[in-house]
Write a structure and sequence with these properties.
This protein is of the alpha/beta class. The chain has 2 domains: 2-217 and 406-461, 4-Layer Sandwich (Metallo-beta-lactamase, Chain A); 222-400, Rossmann fold. The chain is 32% helix and 22% strand. The protein has helices spanning 37-40, 64-67, 70-75, 86-117, 128-135, 222-239, 252-262, 279-290, 297-306, 321-327, 348-355, 374-379, 410-418, 433-447; strands at 2-5, 17-21, 24-28, 56-58, 82-85, 138-141, 146-150, 153-159, 167-175, 178-184, 207-211, 243-246, 273-277, 315-317, 334-338, 362-365, 384-387, 390-393, 397-400, 425-429, 451-453, 459-461. The strands form 4 sheets. A 7-stranded mixed beta sheet has the order 6-5-4-3-2-1-22. It has a 7-stranded mixed beta sheet with strand order 7-8-9-10-11-20-21, with helices on one face. Strand 17 (384-387) and strand 18 form a beta hairpin.
Amino acid sequence: MQIEFLGATREVTGSCYLLHVGKYRVLVECGLIQGSQTKERHNRDPFLFDPKRIDTVVLTHAHLDHSGRLPLLIKHGYKGPIYTHRATLDLCAIMLEDAGYLNEKDVQWENKKRERKGLELIEPLYTREEARKAHQHFRSLDYGKTEEILPGVQLTLRDAGHILGSAIAELELHEGNHSRKVVFSGDLGHRGAPILRDPEVLTHADLVIMESTYGDRQHRGWDKTWQEMGEIISSARAEKGNILIPAFTVGRTQELLYIFKRYFDEWGIGDWEVFLDSPMGIEATRVYGKHAKIYDVEAKHIFEQSGDPFDLPNLHLSQHSQDSMKINRKQSGAIIIAGSGMCTGGRIKHHLKHNIWRKQAHVMIVGFQARGTLGRALVDGAKYIRLWGETIQVKAHVHTIGGLSAHADQQGLMDWYHHFEKRPRVVLVHGEPEAMDALAHRLKGEYRADVVQANFQQKLPI
């Protein structure tokens, strides 16, 4: 038995791992590389394996850095099933088709420039239709149910508490008289987060593949996080500016709506017009409403007592581009939630163009910002940004809400690993070098764990 690390090695995006179990090959995750244009070009690189020879795929959750190359895998000949939680199946139906649409739009724009220069035209990474075809390969599972996905390969999904349907993948592998249990953490959630349950604890494994996104830092406590958000909203109200929130359309968007409803009176949310300016965010919120049975106790109670926990009396759903453009006329009194979460595309860039140069405007950063993204530049204090070839001065107040994270912090990761008996070998993935180094140091020092920091294309025996 062997595992190959083919993505998210000493970086956060592009998760992809290949298991060899006897004659079978199991692919865990098949994610997009995200960040700078240079990095994203690698999504067009050939797979480092033959897609036709993959026997099955396991997907931990719907975020594109884990799922976004699945239509491409099928485009290149993969014909087998994709096993995932049923809520992830529903979310991927939306997200992958949207990614296909954006691919088509980006290539259309690029080909206009290429045509004028006499250059060869390019094709989309994959299309909306190819994304729809990929959805036919999905097979849904519930948490805690064990399924034999191949002879000698059993899969059990556990709740990871990261986004709706996110899972820890527990794989029992059998080859001859040899049996091993491999646990993929997927993306582990932040304990106490709204809506979702805390990550499920596991106690037995021979090998743990663990994310390390925030392996070098601790999150601010939830009470202080809510206090900080309330203060920002109060300050923006006094300065008569808009609040822009670049938010991941799955997970963070729903958390924001939920929290705005919870603190509606205390924060004076009723004094604002709240815009969810994201067609995919609107659809994802509907999917969240469909799967209330996997909420945490508090969210489930709210759902049972008052119905939709994401509905606000002053919420405007901006489905069409014309609706989005109307928001840009508003110079004050608007809270605008829009994608993309790292400001690399989508409608948030248009709102930044109309607001970032206003000193009374506020930008609330509420999620991880990868290196090379516009969002990371804002977090790092950029004085100027470039949008569609135009240089724009940053005068708006930029706030980073570090406590509002869908990922476990360093202590959360340590606590999750702590429950494993016999301290199994752990391989760190899905983290930038500093985060990995810090987490590895603590795991070795406090648990004397055998820690490997995965390198690209590294192969390890299981």
